[in-house]
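Objective 1.3, modelling of assemblies. Example input:
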Amino acid sequence: MAGSKAGFGAPAKVPGWVNLGLIPLVNLVAAFVISGIVILIVGDDPIMALEVLIYGAFGYPEAVGYTLYYTTNFIFTGLAVAIAFHCGLFNIGAEGQAFIGGLGLGLAALYLDFLPFWAVIPLAILGAAIFGAGWAYVPAYLQAKRGSHIVITTIMFNFIAFSVMNYLLVEVLINPKAGGSPETREFAEHAWLVQAPEFTGMADSPLNFSFILALLLSVAFYYFVWKTRWGYEIRVVGQNEHAANYAGISPSKNIILAMVISGGLAGFVAVNELLGVHHKVLMDFTGGYGFVGIAVALMGRNHPVGIFMAALLFGAIYQGGTELSFEMSNINKEMVIVIQGLIILFSGALENMFRPRIEGFFKRKSATNRVEA
Amino acid sequence: MFEVLILLFDATLRVATPLVLAAMAGMFSERSGIVDIGLEGKMLGAAFAAAAVATTTGSAWLGLGAGILASLTLSSLHAYACVTHNGNQVVSGMAINIVVAGLTPTLGFAWFKLGGRTPALNGDERFTSITLPFADALADVPIIGHIYSELISGHNIIVYMAAISVPIVAYVLYRTRFGLRVRAVGENPSAVDTAGISVELMRYKALAVTGFLCGIAGSYLSTAHGAGFIRDMTAGKGYLALAALIFGKWKPVPTLLACLLFAFTDALQARLQGVEIPVIGVIPVQFIQALPYILTVLLLAGFVGKAHPPKAIGQPYIKEK
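Predicted structure (tokens):
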């Protein structure tokens, strides 16, 4: 797999806090500095923008609710991309997998809503996971058995997913009462996920039960990847396919397994967005979350704790950025996308820019410490 | 029927132009061993720069220059990340796409106050259609003359640039020392290194060509095909060009044919909306839109011929210490 084996979470001989804390922080600061320059160019005050962003993300309970609602999506897609990374695979297709996950969820929620809530909700969630997994299965199979490059195939599958959903929502599942917009009818009310309770002050935000699901999945992810045989095999294949083969671990089986889990996790975006917020299937509900998942996984070093932190960061940027476009005269909501892209650039593509220098500094330091001792 | 076909092919040429230029751009990058999913972002950046400069200076040519410059800058960034720092090429391309998708409407919004678009271009701010010599005189000659005057003549200069770019690219890649070296660093960089040629420099040069061609492709969208920049105006054309490049097996002429095929399906779908076809019935528009991507997946899976990507693609070259 193209260059993904080296660099992603490769253990370095430096203190853990440097690898997991300092280096991502330096990359983040670099991204914010460039974003600040962009804000200067458009003629606003970057420091003030940062204040507005932080207030908009955490300043009052409803803002926190919004931030956590975005965070929920990013946890799902971050975990999805991370499990693929553990197997040395690059899943760019989370966006399409989440979209098709919405189809599975919609079919269950629309056609099984005669069932009580304790049956229809789990079935809808299962539908999202299964359809997302199925959409990831095909590229995984093609990579494992026919050697097609998973990056290219998943990109193509994003476009195909868009066309499939567009067709189904325009021609088949459309709600005739929606005035021609491509969306289904609303789900029955007992199939909706519960919103954040009143006492939190976040009841008016879109935050819903999916957030709890995201936390549960994060814990499950940890146990699966580091405490089970399957997780071990996936990681072995990701580290060294030849060694895996030699040890009797089938690369192709694990490639398919990791990708299917990845697609299933991506499908959970539909749970948050459709079952939790919109209560119907509509176009483009995936909103680029699948792509941000790549950044979340990279920043979070493919570990659930790191992914939670990175997802929270992106959630805050999303929510705070919306506030920015209201408060600052020259900034519109696309500024969020710029910040996001820069974070991906510095923490992903340019991760080797600061890393060797920082690591070198600490290695030298530990060497001199040893000499002194 | 003949008239309809002429119109259809005419539309095909207009749609194919940015695809051809972007696919030829991608060819240099990918043949040198650098995955480039950033074609989309480079085109979008060029489209914005071209429209912004064209509307400010009143010259389409200056706009084109700015578009090329913007694309070259982004391409250099890609090279800096992937070649100098051995960064992950897919992540770098993604990052460039996302940054540009955000930056273009942000700057557009701040500079032109039109909600992220540029003012509409007119007159000299756009590349207008050129009537080729003798087109009017030959218009009445049946078939041949008609094809010449209606289909071949009457496009803007960038369409013709795209047309000549293919033979030029083919010549450069296969008949010059530079092209040979580009292909060599994509197949076996250590051999090139052993011969005393800098792999890094070769890849930088290849990505510069990519940036140049992608700049023309992007400028076409906003200053020739369209009349100004609108947000996300590339709308996946960069990825479609990438698909065409792969479908064309990373070779110039097959890639051109793939671009023409994809552009033709696009032109066809506009015509076929809701039209009943005997035996088949109405083909869903969405199916035709997805066709290029489905074909590319099938090709990569080895169901339609076999594509061999450049051997060293996607792998950073690290000199042995």
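Confidence is low (pLDDT under 50) at residues 1-12 of chain A.
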